Amino acid sequence: MTDTFKKGMIPEGYHWKSVLQYQRDIYWERWKSYFDWDPQITALIMATYESKAKVRYKALMNKLLTKGERPIYVTKEAWRRYVEYWESDDFKTRSKIASSNRRSKKGGPGAEQGAGEGLHGARVVPSCAHEETRWSDLH
Fold it and tell me: Which DSSP state fits 74?
């Protein structure tokens, strides 16, 4: 799916919501050409594609932002527009809010295993301990 995006990165496409419908249709048609299915389930597949496309497109854009270098499949104009958006106050504000909503700090202890330092003070209680507590309350 990501390869279909890479074949047509557009300057307006700095996030999925900004990708115009005609471009989404191009992505869909390109992706669809790799597969064959019963026409009766096309609507279901398209709905699934849409939900997956949002996630994959976001991951692609996050990778571009994190890497910070223009890949060959992104035109100079598209890259300029992406960087312009990433440097905007609106993007920085949204990014800061999203960071504060995470369960852990990015790059904190444990980040190398995929988990950062926890921000929430609650202790972890195994579900079996919850069961014991509930059972003991009854006796």
Answer: S
